[in-house]
Design a protein that fits this description.
Distance between the termini: 27 Å
Number of helices: 7
CATH class: Alpha Beta
Radius of gyration: 17 Å
Strand order of the largest sheet: 1-5-6-10-12-11
Largest sheet: 6 strands, mixed
Number of domains: 1
Structural class: alpha/beta
Shape: globular
CATH architecture: 4-Layer Sandwich
Amino acid sequence: MTRKDIQELLDEAEKRFAEEAKLIRLESGEVIFVGDTHGDLEATEEIIRKYLKPENKLVFLGDYVDRGPASLENINLLLQQKLKHPNGLFLLMGNHEGRAVMSFQPSDFWEGLDARLRQRYGEVLSRLPLAASTPNGVFAVHGALPDVSGLEDVERIEPGSAEWHQMIWGDWQDRDGEDLGIDPCTGRPQFGRGWFERIMSRLGKNVLIRSHQLDAPSVMYDRRCLTIFTSSSYTYYVPERTIALVDLRTEVKSVDDIRIEIV
């Protein structure tokens, strides 16, 4: 793509995201949830080829750039497909899309851009929705759950707020407790079973699907919290790229009601 093509793509994508809610409500069909891709263009192309169909919804859970070999191509392809299929493909925000608000490492994609493109990608990606929900019991987000009273509160979460950091930066630990503090190595907020159960009750949902952590696929909290990861950039830690498929015609009470596939 030429620089002009990229600028036009970003302008159109920004308009599209400005029209979307921060909470995507998925009402019918089958939903395919995709974990971090981190510049794994091959994974993104394969998922789009195989699963982007009129009867499906594709929901990517964030972290499209950095670490992988083709970050620019990956995010541009996703933005192009979003414009072609505005009601069939959804891009949630991950921490690596939050560059306009927070700094992090590694950030090779962002550091490889000139100042103007860095600003424009930051502006556009800061408009991404934060979460998705289904009527059959699923809530989806990049990281952890925000301290909210209900689904409607998600619409009021602003970039940079405490709740925003919880959603795009938070980790889960498979132990009791609520707010477990900040991990001294990663700087990420840590949360336990008590936080999960309390917020999921407020949201009225049964199962959380998320990404962000490398120990995927993993299941916690009585099989109600599923972590997936869909990038080959971490093959030492994540040997298989996984996605989660949810049929909205069937109630989801646990991870056992979700189909997990390798791509």
